[in-house]
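PROTOCOL LOG
Step 1. Enter all chains and additional molecules of the complex.
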Amino acid sequence: AQKVTQAQTEISVVEKEDVTLDCVYETRDTTYYLFWYKQPPSGELVFLIRRNSFDEQNEISGRYSWNFQKSTSSFNFTITASQVVDSAVYFCALRSYNAGGTSYGKLTFGQGTILTVHP
Amino acid sequence: DGGITQSPKYLFRKEGQNVTLSCEQNLNHDAMYWYRQDPGQGLRLIYYSQIVNDFQKGDIAEGYSVSREKKESFPLTVTSAQKNPTAFYLCASSEGLAEYNEQFFGPGTRLTVL
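Step 2. Run joint prediction.
Step 3. Record the structure below.
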């Protein structure tokens, strides 16, 4: 069975602080992909990043960075110098091949972390 | 601009009524999905479709039905059999069902049962 856990339900920071959102996953598949999505108050999910299970390189995109560690089954997301516009719900998700014995790669979401950045 | 549109944005339904949520995409994607989001929870898959005239149940399909008569359209009907339909519904699409295909989401429809 697949599972994604985002233990932090809510995080509140002041603008310009750095913040890390945790994501821990479980899967028995050796080939899988991890995703982060942002859901602003408008409701639409915005794709942020995709990482495959064979690539453990960290990634940086502007103020965003991601740390993927297979040894701890974690895919954490850090926002540097947070801004008010970063306030949103952030979802970590997992998708693997042959989950459940079918050819469809089911996308499993964590519960989400509500990030509030105060001015 | 390519994207996914969902309508209506807000929908109110009386108990016992069926309602249909619209989802249209112009991304030329083969795969489409419907998710349900409840407060404080992640998204749960209702139905998905790999190709026209084909669709499969997701984790919480009971009380829902879908059709896929056109590649760009994947409407969801919430039937009276759905016991607790009040939720936020998100439609998504991707190039295919492969695990590396990221899914793109629409703006969602908030359904409230009165």
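Step 4. Note key features.
The first strand of chain A starts at residue 3 and ends at 5.
The radius of gyration of chain A is 14 Å.
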